[in-house]
Amino acid sequence: MGLTVGLGAGASGCSGSGVAAEGVNGAGGEPVAVLRQAADTLGEAGGARATTSMEMATGGTRVTIRGRGVYDFRRRLGRLTVILPADPTGTPEHRPITELLAPGALFMKNRGAGVPADKWVRVEAATVADGNLVTGGATDPYAAAEVLRGTRTATFVGRTSVGGTAVRHYRGTADLASAAHAASADNRGPLSAAAKGFATAEVPFDAYLDDAGRIRKLRQRFSFVNGRQAAAVAVASTTLLHAFGTRVEVTLPRPADIYAGRLAEGEGVPAD
Question: Are 188 and 182 in contact, with CB atoms under 8 Å apart?
Fold first, then answer.
């Protein structure tokens, strides 16, 4: 769809009306406050396994990109294997892309489009219009959690389960500019870029938190204006987290292993 660089073919808030909120650890809690602290709770959780999906729709076209890997919330480092959708005949068009997530940066291997097979592509999150929330076909799990710092309205929907774990389901809307203001130093620039680059800074979401306040599932909906077409692209990003305590080992590429060519924003080929 030509949507992404890598894969292209503190305002005041009040809870909305709804079921009375339940907070973390069984105590009562106001939904907006509970959600705004979710990123801090993940930061204390250590490593986890992550499964991601990103659905993109424009006009009559819809594609889904899936990823699987691990993430360390203390060091904010992760590794994902991202699978692109098959072509209309069912034949895979791309090899899986290996992605390394780091504070403020994304590294991709097997990206294709003229990049040597043994080289990594580095993308600075603050330099792309979406703040790397959709660029890699998967949202950085910690960045996704930090979007919740900008929660403006939220309701407690009820109790349910995700992957066999009891969770509390919250539904609400976050503001990217507010999230950027409250975010960690590494994500402040990327979220500010997203607030300006998306069609709207408003992010509807559904968040599922376990009894320790950790995000188990987070679904966020973005609206992105693709440079190749006037119509906005609807993006739904879902992150699933489980197996907290998993040991995560991520080694970032050496400078010599990074592709030196320049990539055009929003394009799937290197710039001239």
Answer: no
Question: 233, 271, 202: which is closest to 3 by C-alpha?
Answer: 233
Q: What is the CA radius of gyration of the chain?
A: 18
Query: How does residue 215 score in pLDDT terms, banded at 50, 70 and 90?
Result: very high
CA distances from 186 to 10, 143, 176, 180 (A): 17, 9, 15, 10
SS (H, E, C) 12-69: CCCCCCCECCCCHHHCCCCHHHHHHCHHHHHHCCCEEEEEEEEEEEECCEEEEEEEEE
The letter for the amino acid at 111 is: R
For the ranges 8-22, 25-39, 91-105, 238-252, the lowest mean pLDDT is seen at 8-22
Question: Taking the model in full, what pTM does it have?
Answer: 0.84
Do 171 and 110 touch, CB atoms closer than 8 A? Answer: no
